[in-house]
Specification:
10 strands, alpha/beta, binds zinc ion, 2 domains, Aminopeptidase
Amino acid sequence: MQKPVVVLDPGHGGYDPGATYNGLKEKDLNLALAIKVASRLDGVKTLLTRERDIYVSLADRVALSRRAEANLFISLHANAGGGKGFESFIYRGLGAKDPAVLMQQLLHRAVMKAIDRWEITDRGLKRASFYVLRSNPRPAILIESLFLDNLREAQIWREPLFAETLAGGLVDGIKNALALSDAEPPRPANPKAAGFKRSRTSGLYTVQVGAFSHLENARQRLAEAQVAGFRDAFIYQKQ
Ligand SMILES: [Zn+2]
């Protein structure tokens, strides 16, 4: 059997340092993290879009994903701009049944679990239109690990144990996402933990999973419900 292919994409590089705050350069963190993940991933063919501090265009990064027929492409970034926490993105335009939807959930969950000891804020599973997601013909996820302009989170990044632990979470998440045997198998989310609520309406039972003011968030919860096995889950708008 052919090994699954994972393309790791350390964001930025060369003359593009990415977020630069508190003595940290995003491009360096992204690359070191990618190398750690690659060294720990077994049973997988791992490719990096860059292995040194060089500039690689977004188009070239996606071209590698396409050429390698990646089973999973993960773009590694760290955040800035006055927030805190961890977040992951898939392309905004994906349908609920796209394989990347479940992969994002498994990866996101494994990372949050791994870095739990630092009490990192979970900014959630998000969707966006970043080039490396939008133009990628292969399942693609972009992660933003902590805010370098947040002093506490910059200090966390400076602890060597953090990058090791984050790499471990990514390895677990990748194995779950690719359903590789030695990792925890993908399992449905616990409906109780997801906050499922039962309510009774005239004659019919409806199970409400949540009410959201943003459609994106509703779509996200719908995807979670579908992953949990609720095939007849749907979004309705209250008039
Ligand atoms: Zn970045």
